[in-house]
Amino acid sequence: MRLAIRTAFVTAAAAASALGLGVASANAAGWTATPTGAFTASSSNVSMADGSISAKCSSTASGTLQDSSNIGTISSISFPQSSCSSAVGSPTVTATTPWQLEAVSYDSSSGVTTGYIDDIKASVSLLGCNFTVSGSAGATYTNGSGTLAVATDSSHGLKVTSASGLLCTGLISVGDSVSFTADYAVSTSGGAPVISES
């Protein structure tokens, strides 16, 4: 989730912001995370699917928050195999980090930040099919509940970038779209963080 807006050229940044684009930069837009620093997150309802092949897992993550539109970095995220299930067995999901947390817009009336998670990369192994995925996923963070809701959408999606193994044939192919949804409870040493834009 890169939530930063680079301000090398003010007009370019303004145009990108008007289009709802996350542009990397210093904290020109006034993004604030309270507190900054280390965070942890957990989810019990991760769902991933490629066509008819779907899996459900639990997940834990950790990283850091900062005052920037690149509001945070996920430095570690895991999906324990013991928590994963599918119709054809328990997949092994291994993430390649860092993933970036990007903030795009903030609704002060609801305390909801809308953005996305960028630089997502992961490898999946399931009964003789090994494949990798990469891309981004849409995300919202709600201050009141401390919930980071993740869901791929038309603007931010994941694609299969490699696939090998007999089980992949006819089921998992390079270029396939992969859905990813989850609700993560986010916490810091001071409780759930508060993210805002001024």
Structure description:
- By secondary structure, the chain is mainly beta.
- It has one domain (10-191).
- Helix content is 5%, strand content 56%.
- It is built from one helix and 13 strands; from the N terminus they run αβββββββββββββ.
- It has one helix at residues 10-18, and strands spanning 31-34, 37-50, 53-65, 72-79, 85-86, 92-95, 99-107, 112-126, 129-142, 147-151, 158-164, 177-187, 194-197.
- The strands form two sheets. Strands 2, 3, 4, 5, 6, 7, 8, 9, 10, 11 and 12 form an eleven-stranded antiparallel sheet that branches. A two-stranded antiparallel sheet has the order 1-13.
- Strand 9 and strand 10 form a beta hairpin.
- The longest helix has 9 residues, at 10-18.
- Residues 1-27 have low confidence and may be disordered.
